[in-house]
Each structure stands twice: as structure tokens, then as C-alpha cells.
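[Discussion] Sanity-checking designs against the backbone

I'm trying to build intuition for which residues belong where. Below is a C-alpha cell string of 81 positions. I'd appreciate it if someone posts a full sequence so I can compare it with mine line by line.
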């Protein structure tokens, strides 16, 4: 089961209500490293593991959180959670 949107950056995982909110907080709190702008948007599952958007879409569909298969999962896909 998918629990929360997350962004992985510089080996750290940041969580929040949406990817946009997380990125805004990372920039505001100066946690985003502009020297290393690589990051991965994804989600945290029920075990606390980070999943990228494709992995999370499969998990969300398999456990019934979304009604149809998707290639990638987005924060708004889970608004009814």
C-alpha cells in the first residue's frame, strides 16, 4: 500500500502531501542541492520503502488504491486516501 508522496535527493528521502509541496519545502529549507540537482519523485510504501513512480503505480493498482493500471503514479491519484 502506498502511504505518502516522496522525493529522494542526495540519498535522503523527503515526504509530504504532494511532490510540489515537498519540493517547495526542500527549496525553502535549503535542503535541495543545486550542485547536484538529480532527484527522483516517488512514494513511500507501508513498509517505509521508497518506490519510484512506476513501482508505486504497480503497488497502488495491485492493492486496490487506484481503479486501473497506470504507467506512473502521481500524488493526485491518491486524493481519496
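Best answer:
Here's mine. Compare freely.
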Amino acid at each position: 500500500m502506498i502511504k505518502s508522496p516522496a522525493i529522494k535527493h542526495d540519498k535522503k528521502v523527503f515526504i509530504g502531501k504532494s511532490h510540489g509541496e515537498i519540493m517547495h519545502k526542500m527549496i525553502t529549507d535549503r535542503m535541495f542541492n543545486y550542485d547536484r540537482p538529480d532527484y527522483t519523485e516517488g512514494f513511500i510504501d507501508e513498509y517505509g520503502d521508497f518506490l519510484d513512480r512506476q513501482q508505486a503505480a504497480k503497488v497502488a493498482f495491485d492493492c486496490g488504491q487506484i481503479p486501473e493500471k497506470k504507467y506512473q503514479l502521481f500524488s493526485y491519484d491518491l486524493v481519496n486516501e
